[in-house]
């Protein structure tokens, strides 16, 4: 791209349902984390393009001892009000929670349940000029039996309780063509109230804006962003934000299958009749000028040299990890070989990262010091998975490469190969479509999980012992000769 411009996506991995705010010259972003631990990632940028992970708002998820794919933390909203940062998120099985911090890097308060119930999702708070506070949210039909509508509550300004039973302010069933209206973000501009909300579903939806003179409506609607003749399917569910120079921008996701929901940045301007025009007349753009020029290049961390004595912020678990599950020392991640299900989708001690979008190569060096029957390795994990690693059989150590289709048990992807010692160099090359070429020559097509992209991770299984992983490198590029 020419100097002073950027190319989409600006976050090329699974940063689902992004919300973003600006505080001074700093931008902060959070995203859905579902059942990942830690949850609610906090990203920081000075230009909306170059982002770094600076922390998480949730260190653990209450009672999460077994994987719960697609559950827990949905579509958060991030706001800065009265000297505090606020995150509201919906748990579709428990209700709407709020937590706060004076510094977005933490510490954050424990989640407070402000509205209990099932199917309550995608909450967004709003504090009006007169001090009144409100909360708008959507509905998950899988839990509540209803969806395609947005409900508004009056709220205590400290967000400890709601002040009324709520009212439906936008009913998508009354709007021609609308389905799965969700993900509302509530704003005010020049005296008008705005609800930015997506509809139409994750893969093929669009972004609408709703406008009213009164916060309770009636609202008029306009589609402000849709795929059109571009290759950006379902562009929606994100955040409107301004830059220090007064320009306006909109971040949203695009569902890219195994790579999850990647984040695009669109310029936003206002028409003569006061409506937002997003992208190129309502179509996604491949790139634009930098919102804030002159900032250094950055991206969320991936891989890990294991040099700091702790896991980097890019790692996550599918459950709350035990203190004895892992240890980082001397450039090595030691994972305890733990008993548990053979199916990696059901196993808690798989430590993973978001699958990077685009072509890359991942490498690690594994030594397995454990009891017979143990195994450890590198996995690409979604509804289906494949793994490559060392297994200690009765005949000795082997280089194993196995896969499991959705709903099926494991099978050999490539026949086991004998090893002289229980150690191996593990490599997987991933192309732009998610095709994975493993060290053994095995080929696996990565697939997403429930509401999330695939995970690239490390695991160790068995009754005793440990697996040592020296470095975990993720490098752009890969041969893909086979």
Describe, in plain words, how this protein is organized in 3D:
The structure is a single chain. With 482 residues, the protein is an all-beta fold. The chain folds into two domains: 5-289, Tachylectin-2, Chain A, CATH 2.115.10.20; 326-476, Jelly Rolls, CATH 2.60.120. It contains one helix and 35 strands. It has one helix spanning 141-144, and strands at 5-7, 19-23, 26-30, 39-45, 51-58, 74-81, 84-91, 95-101, 112-116, 120-127, 133-139, 149-155, 167-171, 185-189, 192-199, 206-212, 220-225, 236-242, 248-255, 261-270, 276-278, 287-289, 326-329, 332-336, 350-354, 360-370, 375-381, 385-393, 396-404, 411-418, 423-430, 435-438, 443-445, 455-461, 465-476. The chain has a seven-stranded antiparallel sheet with strand order 23-24-35-26-31-32-33, with no helix packed on it. Strands 25-34-27-28-29-30 form a six-stranded antiparallel sheet, with no helix packed on it. A hairpin with a 2-residue loop joins β14 and β15. It is globular and about 75 Å long. The model has no long low-confidence stretch (mean pLDDT 97).
Q: Which helices and strands appear, and what pairs or packs with what?
A:
Blueprint: E1 5-7, E2 19-23, E3 26-30, E4 39-45, E5 51-58, E6 74-81, E7 84-91, E8 95-101, E9 112-116, E10 120-127, E11 133-139, H1 141-144, E12 149-155, E13 167-171, E14 185-189, E15 192-199, E16 206-212, E17 220-225, E18 236-242, E19 248-255, E20 261-270, E21 276-278, E22 287-289, E23 326-329, E24 332-336, E25 350-354, E26 360-370, E27 375-381, E28 385-393, E29 396-404, E30 411-418, E31 423-430, E32 435-438, E33 443-445, E34 455-461, E35 465-476
Antiparallel strand pairs: 1-22, 2-3, 3-4, 4-5, 6-7, 7-8, 8-9, 10-11, 11-12, 12-13, 14-15, 15-16, 16-17, 18-19, 19-20, 20-21, 23-24, 24-35, 25-34, 26-31, 26-35, 27-28, 27-34, 28-29, 29-30, 31-32, 32-33
Active site: 17 (proton acceptor), 182 (proton donor)
Organism: Nonomuraea diastatica
Family: Belongs to the glycosyl hydrolase 43 family.
């Amino acid at each position: 791209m020419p100097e002073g411009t950027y190319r989409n996506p600006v976050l090329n991995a699974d940063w689902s349902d992004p919300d973003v705010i600006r505080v001074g010259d700093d931008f902060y972003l959070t995203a859905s984390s579902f059942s990942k631990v830690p949850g609610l990632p906090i990203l920081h940028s000075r230009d909306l393009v170059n982002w770094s992970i600076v922390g998480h708002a949730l260190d653990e998820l209450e009672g999460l001892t077994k994987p719960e794919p697609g559950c827990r933390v949905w579509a958060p909203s991030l706001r800065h009000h009265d000297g505090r940062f606020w995150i509201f998120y919906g748990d579709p099985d428990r209700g709407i929670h709020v937590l706060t911090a004076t510094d977005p890097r933490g510490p954050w308060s424990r989640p407070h349940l402000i509205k209990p119930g099932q199917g309550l999702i995608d909450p967004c708070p709003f504090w009006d000029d007169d001090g009144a506070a409100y909360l708008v949210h959507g509905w998950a039909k899988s839990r509540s039996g209803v969806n395609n509508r947005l409900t508004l509550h009056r709220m205590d300004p400290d967000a400890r309780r709601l002040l009324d039973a709520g009212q439906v302010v936008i009913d998508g069933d009354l709007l021609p063509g609308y389905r799965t209206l969700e993900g509302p973000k509530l704003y005010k501009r020049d005296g008008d109230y705005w609800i930015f909300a997506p509809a139409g579903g994750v893969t093929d939806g669009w972004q609408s804006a709703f406008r009213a003179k009164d916060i309770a409506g009636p609202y008029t609607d306009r589609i402000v962003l849709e795929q059109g003749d571009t290759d950006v399917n379902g562009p929606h569910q994100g955040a409107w934000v301004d830059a220090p120079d007064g320009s306006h921008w909109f971040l949203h996701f695009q569902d890219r299958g195994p790579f999850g929901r990647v984040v695009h940045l669109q310029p936003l301007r206002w028409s003569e009749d006061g409506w937002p025009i997003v992208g190129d007349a309502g179509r996604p753009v491949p790139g634009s000028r930098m919102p804030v020029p002159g900032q250094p290049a950055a991206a969320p961390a991936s891989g890990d040299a294991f040099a700091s004595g702790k896991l980097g912020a890019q790692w996550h678990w599918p459950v709350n990890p035990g203190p004895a599950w892992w240890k980082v020392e001397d450039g090595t991640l030691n994972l305890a070989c733990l008993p548990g299900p053979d199916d990696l989708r059901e196993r808690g001690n798989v430590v993973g990262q978001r699958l990077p979008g685009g072509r890359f190569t991942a490498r690690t060096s594994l030594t397995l010091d454990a009891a017979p029957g143990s195994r450890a390795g590198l996995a690409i994990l979604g509804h289906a998975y494949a793994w490559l690693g060392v297994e200690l059989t009765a005949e000795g150590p082997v280089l194993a490469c196995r896969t499991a289709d959705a709903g099926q048990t494991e099978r050999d992807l490539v026949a086991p190969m004998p090893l002289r010692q229980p150690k191996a160099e593990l490599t997987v090359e991933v192309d732009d479509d998610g095709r994975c070429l493993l060290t053994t020559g095995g080929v696996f097509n990565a697939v997403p999980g429930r509401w999330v992209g695939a995970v690239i991770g490390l695991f160790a299984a068995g009754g005793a012992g440990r697996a040592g992983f020296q470095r975990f490198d993720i490098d752009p590029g890969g041969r893909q000769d086979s």
